[in-house]
């Protein structure tokens, strides 16, 4: 199995699937492909699960397990986020590959404005997207940036711990939910008594977690977390809708006062099929956007404000970033159109762009980006 894992990592796999009665499969550049011809037996999957489970108490009840999250590492190979589940009465293992080295913004091809966003002293920063869109990597890069630039105490609550951070300028306290603390809510309450400057929450799952996170941001901490939403407007609406109707107006006010930025991500296959690239929407919260969050009638205006703020604030919509990726030949037009927030509008703009002269193209790209000074070399 070690050789199989090594081969998967060398081929750029993001996930490895092991299931009784099936071959070993890996997700490589977004596609699930077979790695072996031989099918795994129930005994092989069970034996591997026993090696991956870190706690003796969990190993003892393996035959009763239905779902278990943990992490596992092998020297010289890598670390994995592991989910052990039961399907059709037998065990299955899904392993997410986690690099040893914490990535930075440049390696992830993320916009440089994330450096500025990470340097806030207080408030709420949200990284959103579907499962497997790179949210954990982006948050790890933000913690890495803080660790290299500031002397702060960063407390993370993760299930399980993925990237391992070394203390540099900052002190990084990483707590595994289920091992180091009972649950997210207990860990978050305790974190407020642990002299934190920054609190990272693996996921905001319910009203209690969101409420405590808002309180932490209101009391002068920087809170970084994730939500499974597609863009900034949907994120704001979802966070408010989680609460009872009687509480929603106050939540709007609290969110408008604490929110600093929302980074929404989608992973797309690259045009040369060498891997995947992130397309992201970045909402940098301005005074006008805070007014829109407070007024439910004005929330739809936020998308236009994001687009207009590209030059002055570094914000960008998905469609602006997708146009840039197509312009740089990093993704194909077809892939970008399928991922666009408004595919027909995106196609119209790109068609108009394609009909112009090379000089006119750069002018049009600047218009789409909200940057009149944009040029191919700029």
Largest sheet, spatial ordering of strands: 9-8-10-11-7-12-13
Largest sheet entry: 7 strands, mixed
Shape type = globular
Radius of gyration: 22 Å
Number of strands: 13
Helix content: 25-40%
Beta content: 15-25%
Architecture overview:
It is a single chain. By secondary structure, the protein is α/β, with parallel strands linked by helices. 40% of the residues lie in helices and 24% in strands. It has 16 helices and 13 strands. The protein has helices at residues 2-10, 42-52, 56-60, 113-118, 135-149, 184-191, 207-218, 232-241, 245-258, 287-294, 302-308, 310-313, 318-327, 333-339, 343-354, 358-369, and strands at 13-19, 25-28, 31-34, 67-74, 78-87, 90-98, 123-128, 153-158, 171-176, 198-201, 222-227, 259-269, 276-284. The strands form 2 sheets. The chain has a 7-stranded mixed β-sheet, sandwiched between helices. Strands 3-2-1-6-5-4 form a 6-stranded antiparallel β-sheet, covered by helices on one side. Strand 4 and strand 5 (78-87) form a beta hairpin. The longest helix is centred in the middle third of the chain and has 15 residues, at 135-149. It starts with a helix and ends in a 9-residue tail after the last helix. Mean pLDDT is 91; it is low at 356-367 and 369-378.
């Amino acid at each position: 199995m070690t050789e199989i894992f090594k081969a998967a990592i060398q081929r750029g796999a993001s996930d490895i699937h092991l299931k009784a009665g099936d071959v070993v499969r890996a997700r490589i550049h977004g596609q699930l492909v077979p790695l072996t011809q031989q099918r795994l037996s129930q005994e092989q999957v069970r034996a591997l699960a026993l090696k991956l489970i870190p706690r003796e108490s969990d190993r003892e009840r393996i035959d009763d397990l239905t779902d278990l999250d943990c992490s596992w590492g092998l020297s010289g190979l890598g670390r994995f986020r592991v989910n052990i589940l039961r399907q059709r009465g037998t065990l299955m293992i899904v392993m997410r590959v986690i690099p040893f080295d914490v990535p930075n913004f440049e390696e992830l091809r993320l916009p440089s404005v994330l450096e500025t966003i990470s340097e806030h002293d207080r408030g709420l920063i949200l990284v959103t997207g579907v499962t497997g869109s790179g949210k954990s990597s982006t948050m790890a890069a933000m913690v890495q940036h803080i660790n290299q630039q500031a002397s702060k105490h960063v407390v993370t609550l993760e299930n399980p711990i993925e990237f391992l951070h070394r203390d540099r300028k900052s002190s990084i306290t990483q707590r595994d939910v289920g091992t180091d603390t009972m649950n997210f809510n207990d860990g978050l309450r305790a974190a407020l008594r642990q002299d934190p400057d920054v609190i990272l929450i693996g996921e905001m799952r319910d009203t209690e977690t969101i409420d405590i996170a808002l309180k932490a941001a209101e009391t002068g901490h920087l809170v970084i977390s994730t939500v499974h939403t597609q863009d900034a407007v949907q994120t704001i609406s979802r966070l408010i809708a989680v609460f009872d109707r009687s509480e929603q107006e106050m939540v709007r006010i609290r969110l408008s006062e604490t929110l600093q930025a929302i980074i929404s991500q989608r992973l797309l296959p690259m045009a040369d099929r060498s891997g995947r690239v992130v397309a992201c929407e970045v909402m940098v919260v301005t005074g006008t956007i805070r007014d829109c969050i407070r007024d439910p009638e004005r929330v739809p205006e936020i998308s236009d404000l994001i687009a207009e703020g590209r030059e002055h604030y570094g914000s960008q919509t998905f469609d602006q970033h997708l146009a840039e990726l197509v312009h740089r030949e990093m993704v194909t037009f077809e892939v970008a159109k399928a991922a666009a927030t408004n595919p027909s509008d995106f196609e119209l703009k790109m068609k108009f762009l394609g009909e112009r002269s090379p000089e006119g193209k750069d002018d049009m790209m600047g218009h789409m980006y909200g940057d009149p000074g944009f040029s191919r070399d700029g």
